[in-house]
Design brief:
Distance between the termini: 48 Å
Radius of gyration: 14 Å
Number of strands: 0
Helix content: over 70%
Shape: flat
Largest sheet: none
């Protein structure tokens, strides 16, 4: 059980580092593109927190991306 918790923590930290490292690629994005990406990220995290499985994470990311895209109109 302790090993599983350590593996989850490592996965979370690795994901966070990868996301923060990729933010440099957003320099030349339009505002709408940036809002779409942010919405997808927030939606994915929310979907994972609520559902706890891959389907809810992907669904949350999709819905968040659509909302992020439409907010900036």
């Amino acid at each position: 059980m302790k090993t599983l918790k350590r593996a989850r923590t490592l996965l979370t930290v690795t994901t966070l580092v990868a996301v923060l490292g990729s933010l440099g690629a957003c320099d030349n994005m339009s505002r709408r593109d940036r809002d779409t990406v942010i919405g997808a990220g927030v939606g994915g995290v929310a979907g994972a927190a609520i559902g706890g499985n891959a389907l809810s994470t992907v669904g949350g990311a999709a819905v968040g991306g659509v909302i992020g895209n439409q907010v900036g109109k």
